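Below sits the subject:
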Amino acid sequence: MRRPPAVARVLEKVTATAREHDMLRAGDNVLAACSGGPDSVCLLYSLCFLRRLFKVRLAVFHFDHRLRGDSAMDAEYVRRLAERLRIPFHLGVAGSKPRKGESVEAWASVARARAANEVRKEIDAGVIAGYPVEDLRVIVYDGKSHAVDSKEIAFVSAGRKAVIDAFAKAGPIMLEPIVNIDIDAPETYVGDMTAEIASKRGQITGTQQRSADVISTTGQVPLAELVDFQNRLRSITGGQGSYSVEFSHYAQVPGQMQQQLMSQYKAAREEE
């Protein structure tokens, strides 16, 4: 991906700042708010380049205040940008407007922060089995507050419960990484390799002659099924086989397995 000059300058500053203050750590979930303006887009491009350097998971959040008739165009622009950059996109939509006499800037700032905070919490904590959430759209219908009685923790708690309730009713699915696998083994073991991949919920995509007595078997298999594959391959081929994997895509976890993971997560939470 070619870096525009403006992005290159921002990238240098963001990298230095992140390292100086230890802002990005491997495995972090980073939610970048993007309005669609040039500054936020430039920052998003910079974070996109940095996610591999710092080994973080990046998602983009856009809040549609609905204060302009064409505000939906901004949301669509950011959605397409996230799609092009292959970044999960989350949309928050205001369900109310500023009250009479209320500062538009103050209302927008609070509404946006609350929506983003709830998205971030659910992305970090997960909902159905503790895994990060992607492609979440949140609509904020109301956010009234009282100068004396209202507390931030109350809004956070109410928002979190609302998101969890709505999420459960939306029929969420779990995704798992699928990898391309390439196995090299003597020709006499091709049948064993095919059966092994099939037993791991995998699919064979082809075979190819590597040399006089070595066949390459290629396929796709869930990454979770390859935990002990090295030992299994050594056992089947007597140490004559080797393999390599490369990420391909995410696919839906089988329904029965999803239910099992959800039950295990629920039991673990109840023990805490």
Q: What stands out?
A: The longest helix spans residues 104-125. The chain is about 45% helix and 25% strand. The helical segments are 5-20, 38-54, 71-85, 104-125, 152-169, 190-199, 229-237, 255-271.
